[in-house]
Amino acid sequence: MSRFVFILFLFCFSSCTKSVRFQNLLEGKWIVERIKVVDGQSVSHIIEDAEGQLRLSFQDSVSVGLCNFELNIDSIIYPFAISFDGLDPVFFDRTDGLEFGSDMARNRYKIILLTKRDLVLEYYDPLNFQLRKLVFVKEE
Length: 140
Prior knowledge:
Blueprint: H1 2-26, E1 28-39, E2 44-47, E3 51-57, E4 62-73, E5 76-83, E6 86-87, E7 90-92, E8 97-100, E9 107-114, E10 118-125, E11 130-138
Antiparallel strand pairs: 1-2, 1-3, 1-11, 3-4, 4-5, 4-6, 7-8, 8-9, 9-10, 10-11
């Protein structure tokens, strides 16, 4: 019985440290480097000149930022904006997911890559039928 309690304690301790470690890596200001958009017709667009930033703080329980980009489809320019502003960002350690924003702009992102310097998030925008992959670099 004592072995079971000890193993359970180790499991709980190790799962908590992953969450804390990821939250510490996510904290700070991130600059949008590029965006990849796959639309409903399975056409990929890579936007190198996207402008935006994201600041995440789990300690202050806030996410702040905005990203603007344009898609050129059949010589027509379509502007898009993603708001990151909101309270209570949440990290889901079992799915490596991240949720932040507010109201209708609150999205659940899949963490594709997370290092001290790089962050890649992916989410689906159902209103525009787009899968979006955001590539961030941490501001030093």
